[in-house]
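Long-time lurker, first post. I've been practising inverse folding by hand and with some scripts of my own, and I keep getting stuck on stretches where the C-alpha cells seem ambiguous. Below is the full C-alpha cell string for one chain I'm working on. Before anyone asks, I'm not after the true native sequence, just a reasonable design that respects the backbone. If someone could post their per-position residues I'd love to compare against what I wrote down in my notebook.
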C-alpha cells in the first residue's frame, strides 16, 4: 500500500491536491473534515456536537476522529492505499494512526506538509466562504483555525521528522505546479 498524509494549515490546498493524488495513484481519500461535515448534514448526534466545535474552529475529540479513521481502514482493506487529508491533527492522533495501520501490517509512506503564508490562507478561505458559504470560512473562525493549527497541529511535523517521513512542499503557485512537487515527494517513498 501507498499511504500518504497531506498535511497543512486551513486553506493550504489539502482538499484540492488530494483530488489530483487520487486521480494519479487510485488511493482512497480520507478527509476527517469531509466525514464530519457529512455527519453535520445528516444531523446525527455526532454531527450536532461536531458542528458547534467546527464553527468555533476548535478540534473535535481525538476519540471521535480516530473511530472514523478505523472504520474507513476496515471498509477499504483491499485498496492500493490511502490519502489522509486533515488527519492527524494532534500527536496523539499520529500515534493512533500508526497503531491502526500496524494492525494491517501497514505504515505511513510520507507526510507531505503544504507551506503557505497566513495572509494567503486567509485570502483563499474568505474567498471560498463567499463562493460556497462554508460555515467556518468567516474571518473570526479562520483566524482561530490557524491559531489552533499553530498550537496543536504543527507539533505533528516533528513526530514525522523524527521518523524521516516529513516532506515540506511549497504550497504556493499554480495547482499543477504544486502537484508536481507532491508527485516528486511521493516518488521518494521506499516500498
Ligand atoms: P477541514 O475540513 O480539514 O478543514 P481545514 O484544515 O481548515 O482545511 P480546509 O478544508 O479549509 O482547506 P484545505 O487545506 O483542504 O484547502 P482547499 O484545497 O480546500 O477541518 C474542518 C474542521 O473539522 C476543523 O476545524 C475541526 O473542527 C474539524 N476536524 C477535521 N479534522 C479533524 C481532526 N483530524 N481532528 C479534530 N478535528 C478535526 O483550498 C482552500 C481554498 O483555496 C479553495 O477555495 C481552493 O480552491 C483554493 N486554492 C487551493 N489551491 C490554491 C492555489 N494553489 N492557489 C490559489 N487558491 C487555491
Ligand atoms: Mg479540506
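-- Answer (accepted) --
I ran through it position by position. Result:
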Amino acid at each position: 500500500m501507498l499511504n500518504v498524509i497531506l498535511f497543512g494549515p486551513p486553506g493550504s490546498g489539502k482538499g484540492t491536491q488530494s483530488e489530483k493524488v487520487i486521480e494519479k495513484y487510485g488511493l482512497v481519500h480520507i478527509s476527517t473534515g469531509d466525514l464530519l461535515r457529512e455527519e453535520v448534514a445528516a444531523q446525527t448526534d455526532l454531527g450536532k456536537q461536531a458542528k458547534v466545535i467546527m464553527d468555533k474552529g476548535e478540534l473535535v475529540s481525538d476519540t471521535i476522529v480516530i473511530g472514523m479513521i478505523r472504520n474507513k481502514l476496515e471498509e477499504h482493506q483491499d485498496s492500493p492505499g490511502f490519502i489522509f487529508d486533515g488527519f492527524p491533527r494532534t500527536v496523539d492522533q499520529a500515534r493512533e494512526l500508526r497503531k491502526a495501520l500496524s494492525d494491517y501490517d501497514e505504515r505511513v509512506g510520507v507526510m507531505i506538509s503544504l507551506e503557505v503564508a497566513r495572509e494567503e490562507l486567509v485570502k483563499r478561505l474568505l474567498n471560498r466562504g463567499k463562493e460556497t458559504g462554508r460555515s467556518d470560512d468567516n474571518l473570526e473562525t479562520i483566524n482561530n483555525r490557524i491559531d489552533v493549527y499553530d498550537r496543536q497541529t504543527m507539533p505533528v511535523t516533528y513526530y514525522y521528522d523524527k521518523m524521516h517521513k516529513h516532506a515540506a512542499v511549497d504550497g504556493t503557485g499554480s495547482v499543477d505546479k504544486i502537484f508536481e512537487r507532491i508527485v516528486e515527494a511521493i516518488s521518494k517513498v521506499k516500498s
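A couple of notes from the structure itself: Residues 157 and 166 are 7 Å apart (CA to CA). The radius of gyration is 16 Å. Happy to go over any region you disagree with.
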